Amino acid sequence: MLCVECGIREAKYDNLCEVCFRKKVKFTAMPQHMEVTICPHCGSVKFRGEWKKLSLEEALRGLIERNVDFLHDYDSYTFEFKYREDSEGYILDVTFHIKYRDLWIDEEHVSHVSIHYESCPRCNRYFGNYFEAILQLRGMREGESYEVLEYAHRRIEHYAVKNENLFVTKEEGKKEGWDIYLSDKREAKKIAKDICEKYGAALKESPQIAGRRDGRDMYRVTYSVRLPSYRAGDVLCIEGVYYLLERVNRSVLNLLSLKDARRKTVDTKKHMVEEVYPQHEFEEGLIVFSRDGNLQIMDSQYRVVETRSPFIFEDGQKIKFVRIKGEVYVLPCSS
């Protein structure tokens, strides 16, 4: 059968020869003008009604895929594009590589892409000082604020990786502690719980109605995290016995007895911490004599004090100790 167009060559493709088929048949169509919506603050792209963090190349590729019309059946295709900036946006040069039966056909298109700027919902909230929760940090020791705040911000960054709508609206230092205003109350609760777990802190929730939306009450929640009076590394008195606090996990304390070196686990919900001796009260000393648990220690004033300890030391070893009610308690070397 001969080509219905030229009548000369064999009709191999839709009653046309290859030459006429390539001339007459178009596989793709692209609009000469397209538009992409970008947030001017964070650069997010509005993609199919949703805002996404995309690079410019990803946004333009998605724009091409959404706007190309296929005019003829094909087996497969790929495309490549280049772009250049102009006064109103970008000029796109797009080349489609189309496979149809045993043919490869290239089709080129040029389109102008206008940039429409629109603030995304996240930036609208951010610049509108939007917040759903206040994370209150209380009970921090002098000089400890930086450490606790750094940990809080690390947890915020951790949850913000999966939730881009989580951000810090503002922060305020107060006499009683520090307040962090957060955009998402669910994530704020996770962060508060993480801080409680690390420091053995107590958590109190206080919801307040902040308005109504679609006939429903909208709440803001204050998560008050109060750190306990003790930290890992302090010496505690529980039921008249003095312990080194080795680890805190929520309400559970892992303790090491300074009397007999036995380890003990205590739940503060059932046992009261009677006394706390923080690490900054510890003194440094030098072992001048050690024999069978009997120690002689030279303190920083070159005075020698005597005590007993269940821990093993060597003469000339530097140690830390704490004086409590006339008694001297020596900390193990690992502390």
Overview of the molecule:
By secondary structure, the protein is an alpha+beta fold. It folds into three domains: about 20-120, no CATH class; about 130-225; about 280-335, OB fold (Dihydrolipoamide Acetyltransferase, E2P) (Beta Barrel). It contains five helices and 23 strands. The protein is elongated. The N and C termini lie far apart (about 95 Å). The mean pLDDT is about 95.
Q: Number of helical segments?
A: 5
Output the structural class: alpha+beta
Q: What is the total domain count?
A: 3
- Gross morphology is elongated
Low-confidence region ranges: none
Short description:
The chain has helices at 18-24, 56-67, 121-127, 145-160, 185-199; strands at residues 28-29, 33-38, 45-47, 50-52, 69-70, 76-86, 89-100, 103-117, 133-138, 168-174, 177-182, 202-213, 216-226, 235-238, 241-249, 252-257, 263-267, 275-277, 283-291, 294-298, 304-308, 318-324, 327-330. The protein is α+β, with helices and mostly antiparallel strands and 335 residues long.
Key terms:
five-stranded antiparallel sheet, elongated, 46% strand, alpha+beta, 3 domains, five-stranded mixed sheet, 335 residues, OB fold (Dihydrolipoamide Acetyltransferase, E2P)
What order do the helices and strands come in, and which of them pair?
Blueprint: H1 18-24, E1 28-29, E2 33-38, E3 45-47, E4 50-52, H2 56-67, E5 69-70, E6 76-86, E7 89-100, E8 103-117, H3 121-127, E9 133-138, H4 145-160, E10 168-174, E11 177-182, H5 185-199, E12 202-213, E13 216-226, E14 235-238, E15 241-249, E16 252-257, E17 263-267, E18 275-277, E19 283-291, E20 294-298, E21 304-308, E22 318-324, E23 327-330
Parallel strand pairs: 2-8, 9-13
Antiparallel strand pairs: 1-5, 3-4, 6-7, 7-8, 9-11, 10-11, 12-13, 14-15, 14-18, 15-16, 16-17, 19-20, 19-22, 20-21, 22-23
Helix pairs in contact: 4-5
